[in-house]
Amino acid sequence: MSQVSSAPDARFSDFALADPIRRAVEEIGYEQPSPIQAQCIPPLLTGRDVIGVAQTGTGKTAAFALPLLSRIDLSLRVPQLLVLAPTRELAIQVAEAMQTYARHLPGFHILPIYGGQSMGLQLKQLQRGVHVVVGTPGRIQDHLRRKTLQLDALRAVVLDEADEMLRMGFIDAVEDILQHTPSGRQVALFSATMPDAIRRIARTYLQDPVEIRIKSATTTVSAIHQRYWQVSGVHKLDALTRILEVEESNAWIIFVRTKTATVELAERLEARGYACAALNGDLNQSLREQTIERLKSGALDIVVATDVAARGLDVERISHVINYDIPNDTEAYVHRIGRTGRAGRKGDAILFVSPRERHLLRAIERATGQVITPMQLPSLEAVADRRMAQFKEQITEALDAEDLSPFETLIADYQREHDVGLGEIAAALAFLVQKERPLVPKPSEPPAPMASDRPAGRFRSEEGRRREPAAARRPARSDGTEGPAMQRYRLEVGEVHGAQVKNIVGAIANEAGVESRNIRKVSIHEDYSTVELPADMPPAVLQHLKKVWVCGRPLQISASDGGAGAPPRRKTERAYEERKPFDAPRKTLSAGPRAETKPRKKAAGSNAAPAKRKARRD
């Protein structure tokens, strides 16, 4: 068993990935691999078995997905790669990530298999043929017993979070599944720890594996005050600008995941009046040095950067680091916040965390051994107070340092000519000075999500919704009822795929940030569904929803006329409009709202215990 102890300074372009996979990586905007990726990808590309010992949040999915997808034979529509995951949530997450990486593989099919999903749907998709299966051990075993999943052509097996599968009691199931795989298949085992049972499986089922250990950072600079804001209600850009205005600061570095995002965010901040520039791997050395020099001299106050571009950056003025996009790698987080609090100086680090990213926050806390405290987003009132204080400081500086006698004469003449008070004249002048940046900011419509962003929050900020007139919040609908104007949409997932109302509502609420009361008339048909959503949905949100997966299929949402030619509703269809609207905002978007249907009464003589045991096993 060979070991690798340190990650080489490599880039994704250095790896012999298949061209379609390399293209997807470039489009996503990945620049430099994390340590686990840098060390796992080369041996996996050559067919070696691998043991990866690393914490959650180090980028393991890309570490095995990119090389193993590069070795898929698309002409063979049989399972060639099997990924075992401890939970259905992780199985779905891995399947979605692999689908993204394989976006340019023609005819590629991946199937997540887990308990609680329709067995009939899984059988149909397996019969049609898939290249990759991602599943939980219990449901994979079910298919093996039924002989509905054939692993004869399997080329590779991935055991993801093996120690978690051990903790959940799946270790016997994992061994049983491995015994059904061909002897020459490749195995990649990933685990945060290596207890004896996992070590025994590695000795039994892996052939001369490369062992890769990633040491997570255990300490961070004690001088850095670390906080996080949970993304909710207010768009990330609006939240960012509030923080920029209220925090006592000098210079900032804002981290995002991709090169494209650095340019987009920098342009938006510049449009809001900030001295800002992008710093990414596309800049040549001369432009990079110019940008850093401008930051040092005070010509710039904000730099929006990727991890790679900010490597080695040491600027004394930087007082704040903002993780606008939470890093997938805990080491990257430590390196990011290390751009402030250097040489004994104080520093602040703020992390934006969406509800679906809380597991990454916990992984960072475990790896660093420090608790990151939650913070409240500054209110509009706090922003107004800050602006007024700054304006008063400007007045004081002008009174102390400038010769104002010509202006005093001008004001006296104006007062005499127009018979108005000095207070009114001063107020008018203050308005003229601040009209581009009002002392009392008004809530504004959030911008469309950036190309690199998953849509976050509602379409309007909570403050904006409260201050809007009632008529603006509830435009009249065509049917005369109260609420926003609605548009019917068609979704390419239906009863045959196992779709339920709660799946569709949860996906739209989580992924698009639409309030549940504005998701109406969800109708499930045989092979498609329809739903009514607000007519003013931003195009970027609709484009994102096209790629959201429900029951193993992308929604592919499209506008539907919903006219008289629409097919009649089936008895199995259920309308979501009858749900009572929530009066209070949801605390989290991590789980979709539940369809409020009455539970069926238990049939006489039925026994639910075997089904419950089966569900627990899955």
TrEMBL record:
Biased composition (Basic and acidic residues): 455-480, 573-586
Record's GO cellular component terms: cytosol; ribosome
Biological process, per Gene Ontology: cellular response to cold; ribosomal large subunit assembly; RNA catabolic process
EC number: 3.6.4.13
Motif Q motif per UniProt: ranges: 10-38
This protein's record includes keyword RNA-binding: yes
DEAD-box RNA helicase Q domain boundaries: 10-38
GO MF entries: ATP binding; ATP hydrolysis activity; RNA helicase activity; RNA strand annealing activity
Domain Helicase ATP-binding: 41-212
Skewed-composition ranges (Pro residues): 440-449
Pfam families: DbpA, DEAD, DeaD_dimer, Helicase_C
Protein name (record): ATP-dependent RNA helicase DeaD
